[in-house]
Amino acid sequence: MIDIDASTLEQLRAAKRIVFFSGAGISAESGVPTFRDDLTGLWAQYDPMELATLEAFNRQPDLVWGWYEWRRQRVRSAQPNDAHIALAQWQELLGPERLLCITQNVDDLHERAGCQQVLHLHGNLFASFCAQCHLPYAADDSHPDHSIEQIAEAGQLIMPPQCSSCQGLIRPGVVWFGESLDSQILQESFEHSADCDVFIAIGTSGVVQPAATLPNIAAESGAYVMQINPQETPIDMVAQCNIRASAAQALPILFEQLSGDAAYGL
Ligand code: OAD
Description:
This protein is of the alpha/beta class. The protein has one domain: Rossmann fold (3-Layer(aba) Sandwich). The protein contains eleven helices and eight strands. It has helices at 6-14, 25-28, 42-45, 48-51, 54-59, 61-76, 82-94, 109-113, 183-194, 214-220, 247-259, and strands at 18-22, 99-103, 118-120, 123-130, 170-174, 198-202, 224-228, 241-243. The strands form two sheets. Strands 3-2-1-6-7-8 form a six-stranded parallel sheet, sandwiched between helices. Strands 4-5 form a two-stranded antiparallel ribbon. β6, α10 (214-220) and β7 (224-228) form a beta-alpha-beta unit. α7 (82-94) runs parallel beside α11 (247-259) and α9 runs parallel beside α10. The model has no long low-confidence stretch (mean pLDDT 92). It binds 2'-O-acetyl adenosine-5-diphosphoribose. 2'-O-acetyl adenosine-5-diphosphoribose binds at residues 23-25, 28-29, 34-37, 41, 104, 122, 174-175, 203-205, 208, 228-231, 233, 246-247. 2'-O-acetyl adenosine-5-diphosphoribose (OAD) is lined by residues 23-25, 28-29, 34-37, 41, 104, 122, 174-175, 203-205, 208, 228-231, 233, 246-247.
């Protein structure tokens, strides 16, 4: 049984602005692997330096593209779970100006659950672009966005398509190690974190910079910081409330306790 203390509920009821900060753990119960969980995390099984850097892509584009095709396929066959759905319902109730979702995830499960406004700090698996001229990749029938091949394993080699404008290779629309985050999205994330009353980190290990500074910015600006994660993380240091449960268990209960009051959100 998940017990949420009265003072946390009071903070949430009184909050004019709430920021959710999600990581791979929110999609874990949809069957999308996290990065750093000991046995199942992607980085426990694959070397990020061989798959998630521009140098790796330049060296072996077919290996990198094949791996991202496999990840896209896993996300496409996954469904939003109860945590994504509760968050989307919460945003619908309060409106995106009062509840913002900032995510490190490159999947589209927040959007498919109905979330209307999501800041993707680390890009989007489905927004490929040209590695040479940076033109967004516009898929059409003759150039499908994604391979139609079924990818049974992660190691399959698939050459990326070519840009229709400059013939450069198309790369995944995610931020790789060594690359900068989109400065506007990062700036907006800083501003929203500094200007919220409650900040809720959910399913993130809180170790990848600069995203990992957001809970600290929120805490320093006076927000009530909460965390939903079965494991301890560095965010424990600033969180005033730690809910040690899975995202899909905890978030619907939290939302139900608030939305059960007909006056909530008015
Ligand atoms: P991590 O894999 O580092 O951390 C996942 C967190 O989710 C861990 O703290 C788990 O304890 C927690 N977790 C696992 N299952 C959960 C569940 N069912 N409910 C709630 N929490 C759960 O993932 P991120 O913090 O998102 O970057 O990783 C940050 C970035 O590192 C990613 O965006 C990615 C990666 O390298 C890029 O791709 C640029």
